[in-house]
UniProtKB/TrEMBL annotation:
<feature type="domain" description="Spore protein YkvP/CgeB glycosyl transferase-like">
    <location>
        <begin position="160"/>
        <end position="298"/>
    </location>
</feature>
<dbReference type="Pfam" id="PF13524">
    <property type="entry name" value="Glyco_trans_1_2"/>
</dbReference>
<protein>
    <recommendedName>
        <fullName>Spore protein YkvP/CgeB glycosyl transferase-like domain-containing protein</fullName>
    </recommendedName>
</protein>
<dbReference type="InterPro" id="IPR055259">
    <property type="entry name" value="YkvP/CgeB_Glyco_trans-like"/>
</dbReference>
Amino acid sequence: MAERRVSLSLVREAWNRWVRPDYQPEPAWRWTWNPPLQRLADAQLLWPTEYQWPPAAKWLFHLKHALSRLIPVETAPIDQSDCEGVARVVLCPRGRNSQPRAIMIFDYSDYADRINHSALKSSVVYFKFQYHPDHADDPRIVPGGYYPNSPWLYRHLVPLRALRDRQQWRFDVHGRFGLRYRADLRRRAIDLLTHQNRFRYEGGAKLIRHYEFLEELAVSKVAIDLPGNGDLCFRLIDQLALGVTVVRPRSPVRLPEPLVNGVHVVECAEDGSDLVETCARLLEDEPTRQRIGQAAREYHDRFLHRDQLARYVLHHVLERL
């Protein structure tokens, strides 16, 4: 019943926005990276039929989908035996038995300090999702961006944004976290947020379906992002995409374009000790909160949308060929 209620509300919101005379469609895309795609006119990507870690398929799906809109992508039994924490993808001419032109590695490991050197050896470019500045010594290793963990975000992005733009807030601060990773930090944050009386908090340690989580975000003024097994988490991508004002601890991990404190997100102490105070300050300053939320949405569209990241990937590959 809950699934039907959420789905119907999203459909209803999309329909209402569509028939209203003041409805404005999504702004035209401005491509951040413009690789010379004509150089790939006779090329294709060979994508692995299986990953060394099968759950990686959930978010590498987004990259594969976006790349397939720019270049033919064919699944093939590519050797992944030495690919712990990474996936090997091959760029080659079209046709059977084609010789590789370039090998690229997508490192989805949560550990920012680890590089799969065996996979790196044969690669032209190595996209590290949890990229630490210490990797800058090797020019082949570049920030890999980050992706949602399900297709729900992109399927419902337009109606979710429309719902948020109505500003009919149900919650002041949203923060929902599982306790499998960084349980100490997350429990402390939940405890601080639960036992304060300065604003309405929604969240806790109970996990819900992804589309329900997205709908909660859409009606929250502020959202909290905390690290999990890695510094970057899926919820950050969801929050930025919807244009929520995000409060998160400082982190050295980098995306293709750095997130700027006070512009795209608001940083708090690494231990979350000032979490309540930071959220309360944002709730009292609506112009700043609205500005940061809008900048977060624009940041996602320019640097994190899967269609932008597909061009980013091809930009780096072609630059090194």
